[in-house]
Amino acid sequence: MSSQSSIPWFDDFMGVAYRFYDLRMNVIPLISDRKQSASLWHDTIHWWVDPSIKIRFVETGDKYWFIMGSDSQKPDTNLSFFKVLQKSENYERFKKGHGGEAYLRLGVYAKKLLGDVKKNARCNCGHEAKDHDEGDNDECLYNSCDCKKFSSFQVNLLKRKKMITDIAFLEEKDVKNDPLTWNCLNVNKYSKLK
Ligand SMILES: [Zn+2]
Ligand SMILES: [Zn+2]
Q1: Centroid of ligand 1 to alpha carbon of 125 (angstroms)
Q2: For residue 111, what are the β-bridge partners?
Q3: Ligand 2 centroid vs 155 CA: distance in angstroms?
Q4: Is 93 exposed, middle or buried (0-12, 13-18, 19+ CB in 10 A)?
Q5: Protein residues near ligand 2, an ion, with CB under 5 A
Q6: What is the pTM of this model?
Q7: Among 14, 26, 35, 133, which residue is least crowded by beta carbons within 10 Å?
């Protein structure tokens, strides 16, 4: 097995979704491009040794670091993932409800505009498509809402999955004891503060 510190850090993905699906919480890194998601799976995640997959969360204010890595049967193309993300309801739900295990799947993130969706599709403002003006300017018709343009997204889940059983929420003061997290913050945060 290769040492943790030689594995490159990868953050070229859009975020992480948390969904209850197939009897377990699913942790779903969101990729904007189907081809990229296929090659990430094929070259990297497919080779991960399931019991060694780790995900770590480190909160700082209203944001958190998502950190994921694993031993690989093909160390040459291994990557570790990280992203600094905004806390969300789904994140909090995952934190409370994961029960020590989750499925890892990739999701392809597709942005949807008003013309692409059904009337009951929900906009990021929280209101449905039918509550948005269908004129040139598809602003939300709720008086109290300042949404100026319908936008929503759809996540297409890839079928293949891995099992994660090593999940930890850490405080920044404790990361020194966790090699994956320590390496991530060292490379991607502390070494850039100078
Ligand atoms: Zn809206
Ligand atoms: Zn609205």
Answers
A1: 4
A2: 153
A3: 21
A4: middle
A5: 125, 127, 140, 142, 145, 147
A6: 0.84
A7: 35
